[in-house]
Write a structure and sequence with these properties.
The complex is a heterodimer of chains A (about 120) and B (about 110). Chain A contains no helices and 11 strands. Chain A has about 120 residues and is an all-beta fold. Chain B contains no helices and 11 strands. In chain B, the strands form 2 sheets. In chain B, strands 2, 4, 5, 9, 10 and 11 form a 6-stranded mixed β-sheet that branches. Chain B has a 5-stranded antiparallel β-sheet with strand order 1-3-8-7-6, with no helix packed on it. Helix content of chain B is about 0%, strand content about 55%. With about 110 residues, chain B is an all-beta fold. Classes of the chains: A mainly beta (about 120), B mainly beta (about 110).
């Protein structure tokens, strides 16, 4: 595809339900990031993958949040036992190169998944 | 902790005028600063970036200025158009630490008045 795609675009969950959010990065992109954006706020970093390796998960707010990228392309962010404070837009971004080349690699963002927990 | 913040939450500008969006940062180790534009229902879209060893960079109708002395950067948009209406975020990152995670500010909503 031409850009990063995410599905579903909208998800409504009852408190306590598990949800899975999917990200399809730009083909060939090595790095993949997940961000959480609360209403009226800037995105906040959750986790980062380089190919299939999860190199940083310091931003995940609790152990209810889990992300994977088993084949180094598609990624899934899973939230278990959702809470109302999990309501936010979840953004996925990808960049072409691996980190560590001492130059910034532009991150391309998907449209996000808006999660509402009732 | 370290943060990237903005001075003004909203800005209204007459179409055709120039606009300036400001941003303050506190992490002295920041190496790259990036401006993103986010329209309603969409993900952030890259506008322009600047490295910490520069003080000015120009793109098409946009200019970013970096003042490391006071830890301040700005985005200037020339001859604004209705399509410039959006929320603008500054963000910082330091790939030298082996992670390009972005730290965003809270954003400024720019409204272009026809």
């Amino acid at each position: 595809g031409a850009g990063v795609s995410q599905s579903p675009r909208y998800k409504v969950a009852k408190r306590g339900q598990d949800v899975a959010l999917r990200c399809d990065p730009i083909s060939g992109h090595v790095s993949l990031f997940w961000y959480q954006q609360a209403l009226g706020q800037g995105p906040e970093f959750l986790t980062y993958f380089q190919n299939e390796a999860q190199l940083d998960k310091s931003g995940l707010p609790s152990d209810r949040f889990f992300a994977e990228r088993p084949e180094g392309s598609v990624s899934t962010l899973k939230i278990q036992r959702t809470q109302q404070e999990d309501s936010a837009v979840y953004l996925c971004a990808s960049s072409l190169y691996e980190v560590g080349l001492s130059s910034y690699n532009e991150q391309f963002f998907g449209p996000g998944t808006r999660l509402t927990v009732l | 902790g370290e943060s990237v913040g903005l001075h003004l939450p909203t800005l209204s500008v007459q179409e055709g005028d120039n606009s300036i969006i400001n941003c303050a940062y506190s992490n002295s180790a920041s190496d790259y600063f990036i401006w993103y534009k986010q329209e309603s229902g969409k993900g952030p879209q890259f506008i322009i970036d600047i490295r910490s060893n520069m003080d000015k960079r120009q793109g098409q109708r946009v200019t970013v200025l970096l003042n490391k002395t006071v830890k301040h950067l700005s985005l200037q948009i020339a001859a604004t158009q209705p399509g410039d209406s959006a929320v603008y975020f500054c963000a910082e990152t330091n790939p030298n630490f082996g992670n390009e995670k972005l730290t965003f500010g809270t954003g400024t909503r720019l409204t272009i008045i026809p």
